[in-house]
């Protein structure tokens, strides 16, 4: 039974302990949009400011003069807010619980005091290796505490970090290093995921060949799988464990302006190469910490676990910055949900008495598919609240999460947001919002969503359309690194004066928002965001490929799978072998997350007479829905469609 229309009212226990009830939500929301200056001026005080701000909001969505500034004359330091500020009151409290890939390896509990020393040492190592305020540092680390130390160390000295997900290939890493010009890269000997080793340092070495800008590679010893003594790049490689010993355990935090950059994070768009989304210091941290507190109803003493990887924005805002700014205990998990088996998440919940658990629909669907027997041996009694992020959650998965994992005791916060938004924009608040399975529900404070039709009209009442946001919020990205024009064109040109999200959305009779997925050429594979153009350009870089078109198709576990149509060079012959070769090629070009699920060799692609590939048709065929291919009469050669239908790759 699905419960898409059922309403789950807020349970009394949740209401009693939560920060925000329905009434507070309504009055705070109203104030936040009517008087953003006053509202955010007040809530900005949740941080420690070295020099308080006198201006709060200075933003314009006006095309083409988009400019976003929050707290612009305030001075603060993010690492001081996330670490030093807590030393007096909670120095001995655990800041980070680290749960390793292998359940037999002991977990680590890092207190705020220890975190302070580690961040200072890391900062000093960066300084000793020539990193200065304003420099970019690329971080290519697995899910180990050092990734948080490195992020906070950059923030401490005013360096701008750019984390590259450790699952990306050497090729992708090199592109991102070059784009932001990092002279320093931080990596580890190896990563460990599901018992498998990931050769990070080796990938960095390969990347260096294409990224001559790099002067230093700082190597954290993790698995011991590579001896940093045997530096493969003399004069470049730095053994972190040795360097750490040689520096002082304290380091004064740099005074940063609220609008100084904090980090760059590359994300996929519908065209071109990944964009360096730039977030700044003050507004980002106000927003990340405030959403973390209210959305997850985080109270002192709670143990909070977000299963994302720090290589994605969710890890930035809701493993590291938001929780630590709030003095929380945040759990960092190195492994995967299925290792050693599908009970692992629940065992970790029991082991560390996790109260708040935040994961992605793809993981929920995979665990649901593995069977309830993996829940049976675990108690999960500590859980109080469940969260979901990354893609729309289908009602079946929602129900299973709610009924089986949370035993109908734990509200689910389905949080909609994006790399660009810095923090959660549409979400229930556990004590305030009645839930509907599959709806992200209502906007967070200060967020004004609207739905647009194809002609650029704002739609009222219950409606479906493209989701835009009408005014700025403090966590919003400020620009695309090095390309402000692309920023303005990408987000503010489709609907002038409004931020375009790229998502389609429905608003129901109760004003609840239901995100329906991307309306552009971005696909969402296991919660990982990918531009079809990126996969296409990886495919056409193979010498045997002349043309490629990539679309998403519905996939039971991943949400969307990657379906590739490939036209070969004259004289090349299609074969299963070539299919494997192309799959491997894409993995090496981008990374395993971009592995094609289906490759169909096509002698021709459906094109308009002006040469545009008609993706609508390719999507339909990939979805196995060729009853209704729409109008094909504008195609240059309508015959290619028959061949495509004939040779479609059936669902595995
Ligand atoms: C945080 C994150 C952003 C895209 C976004 C949308 C999809 C994220 C969602 C959701 C439905 C949710 N998305 N959360 N769709 N319901 N709760 O995932 O950032 O990697 O940039 O992806 O993910 O399509 O536009 P990012």
UniProtKB/TrEMBL annotation:
InterPro entries, per database record: Ac_CoA_lig, ACAS_N, AMP-bd_C, AMP-bd_C_sf, AMP-binding_CS, AMP-dep_synth/lig_dom, ANL_N_sf
Post-translational modification: Acetylated. Deacetylation by the SIR2-homolog deacetylase activates the enzyme.
Sequence ranges assigned to domain AMP-dependent synthetase/ligase in this UniProt record: 84-469
Reaction(s) the record says it catalyses: acetate + ATP + CoA = acetyl-CoA + AMP + diphosphate
GO molecular function: acetate-CoA ligase activity; AMP binding; ATP binding; metal ion binding
Keywords annotated in UniProt: Acetylation, ATP-binding, Ligase, Magnesium, Metal-binding, Nucleotide-binding
Domain Acetyl-coenzyme A synthetase N-terminal: 25-82
Top EC class for this record: ligase
Name of protein: Acetyl-coenzyme A synthetase
Family recorded in the similarity comment: Belongs to the ATP-dependent AMP-binding enzyme family.
